[in-house]
């Protein structure tokens, strides 16, 4: 497609020999700048789409494997702080009431439950729809195959870009 466009433009210049080299250079400079700009813009969009899919895919892979810490790291930093505080409070309460460290009890239970529930599922983050003009917020569609029972065949996740990195919004 691009080579056809370039051939067409070259043919126009070859046919019109009356154009001086200054006009040709100016046109080629403008054309090159516009082409470069369009490639860069599409590259940025592509990278945002890939990054939004990647964090979503990482989250579901972590959930499937029972990696609670990996799943939590996919959420926004604010959520991660709230989760850490909850775990710390849970650990302090279990130590106070039961004389044992229970800070990892919640993670262990979640890990076991998720490994069993999703062991046969395959999660695929397959489509990104940006929800604003600045492209820092999107909905990622996820297809779930191999699911049975109460697990749906598809879902969607809202992701946000924060400090240049994509996260799942709680």
TrEMBL record:
Species: Lachnoanaerobaculum umeaense
The name of this protein is DUF4878 domain-containing protein
Q: What InterPro entries does the entry give? A: DUF4878, NTF2-like_dom_sf
Q: Which Pfam families match?
A: DUF4878
SUPFAM superfamilies hit by this protein: NTF2-like
Query: From which lineage does this chain's organism come?
Result: Bacteria, Bacillati, Bacillota, Clostridia, Lachnospirales
| Domain DUF4878, chain residue ranges per copy | 47-168
């Amino acid at each position: 497609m691009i080579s056809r466009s370039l051939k067409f433009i070259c043919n126009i210049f070859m046919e019109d020999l009356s154009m001086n080299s200054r006009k040709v250079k100016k046109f080629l400079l403008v054309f090159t700048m516009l082409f470069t700009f369009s490639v860069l813009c599409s590259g940025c969009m592509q990278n945002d789409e890939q990054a939004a899919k990647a964090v979503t895919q990482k989250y579901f892979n972590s959930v499937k494997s029972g990696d609670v810490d990996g799943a939590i790291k996919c959420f926004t930093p604010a959520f991660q702080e709230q989760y850490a505080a909850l775990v710390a409070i849970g650990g302090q309460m279990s130590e106070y009431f039961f004389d044992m460290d229970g800070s990892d009890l919640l993670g262990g239970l979640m890990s076991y439950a998720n490994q069993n529930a999703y062991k046969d599922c395959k999660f695929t983050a397959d489509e990104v729809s940006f929800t604003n003009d600045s492209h820092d917020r999107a909905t990622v569609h996820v297809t779930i195959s191999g699911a049975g029972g109460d697990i749906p065949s598809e879902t969607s996740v809202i992701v946000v870009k924060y400090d240049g990195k994509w996260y799942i919004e709680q």
